[in-house]
Fold this sequence. Notes:
Strand order of the largest sheet: 1-2
Low-confidence stretches: none
CATH architecture: Orthogonal Bundle
Number of strands: 2
CATH class: Mainly Alpha
CATH superfamily: Large-conductance mechanosensitive channel, MscL, domain 1
Shape: elongated
Distance between the termini: 69 Å
Amino acid sequence: MGMLKEFKEFAMKGNIVDLAVAVIIGGAFGKIVTALTENIIMPIISMVMGKGGVEDLSVKIGPAVFPIGKFLQAVIDFILVAFVLFLIIKLMNTFMKKKAAAPAPPSEEILLLREIRDALKK
């Protein structure tokens, strides 16, 4: 029973739960980015290129054909995910700086105690 109890304590730590939530949200976010690239960005690129799209690109060297389009699609997906995450983190940092920069004003009790302290110094 000791090992089961240790595992339960390990699994219920905040870090593990936070990680699980992050993985689930990350998977959902990845689906959103994939849908964005496949349904909006790639059709626009296809119109510009006049071909079937990035996924259909391939390079032929002699008898070998290298389908580089799928790799390019994955690179574009990665760049979009990285850029959106950069924007989210930048926004969070901005909010954290504003929150840290503006300390809460002292309470009335503190102000009164300061007045008493200053009056006693005289």
